[in-house]
Amino acid sequence: MTWLQAMVLAVLQGASELFPVSSLGHTVLVPALLRWKFDRSDPTFLAFVVALHLGTAVALVIFYRADWVRIARALVSSVARGSLSSDPDERIGWLLVAGTVPVALLGVFLEAPVRRFFGSSAIVATFLILNAFVMFAGEALRRRPSTTARSASAQGDSTRPLAELPWADAVKVGFAQSAALLPGISRSGASIVAGLLLRLSHEDAARYSFLLATPVIFAASALEIPKLFAPQAQGVLAQSAVGGVLAAVTAYASVAFLTRWFHSHDLRPFGWYCLIFGTLCLGLALAKVIA
Amino acid sequence: MKALALALAVIFFIIGFLYLFGILQIGASHGGRHVSHFVLFVVLGILSLVWMRFASSGASPQR
Lengths: 291, 63
Prior knowledge:
By secondary structure, chain A is an all-alpha fold. Chain A has helices at 3-16, 23-33, 43-63, 65-81, 88-117, 121-143, 147-154, 167-178, 187-197, 202-222, 225-228, 237-264, 268-286. Chain B has one domain (2-56). In chain B, helix 1 (2-20) runs antiparallel to helix 2. Chain B is elongated, with a radius of gyration of 14 Å.
């Protein structure tokens, strides 16, 4: 792996992990388009990928540091008290726990087999197109007022605050996030769509999605930290360090942009991007231009 | 509820250690020790203990 390839992959990972466009899909399709060949099971490549994920997780923690401090304090005091209170931070903390359990369970058991079966460019591109339609459908269904939304709308607002999300709905968002095990389906896209369908605003759905992604990305990369110090990985330590920092900076900029974006915009532009890029890649894969 | 939470915690801890020592291989992609499975089940065990603590004090989710 050259330095240029390492830096491109770092920027790609940092941005696409948080934009609802599937980082996994992009790390398969973009190298295929550029005809970069990597052995994804090579210890040096794995060490590099771990560094990129760590960088992304650190960026998320730094961006939401005030939220995490409040949530952690609220959770600790809740456990110490042995009861639940009406504190919104405490409730959001437990909602995050409830949403993380499904993705942790499915991730640990299904990640390896799913990636083995769905690794080809054509399949990834197909899932990227599906990702686009999930976002389009989510936005369309969001705009169609349901009975409960109509009655809520009559009272002034059809959305509810994140802290009022029921437990079962938090678990549903967690399951939706698990769809990102399929390369081409976006973690943030799936969880934001689920949040929207459960009557969260775009802002709250995105905030819950990013908060929910943090422990998952952090735990997944923390478990792989030993790979960074494997003897074979020493050759890419500098690239891994610089790549990790670059991924962190890109991820921070991405989450800062997206939180502002969802203040007044929706998922459809990302849907169009996934549809166009996915269709292009699928065409190239079917024509055997890319592997 | 308290007894159920405790039983679940014990089961999760046992399953976690079985994965850690490579005795349990269900759903594993390779042979040997499975640290990620171990961590997952230990975390589930801890969450069960938290549930037990909440059950002890009579608190339950409001929604």
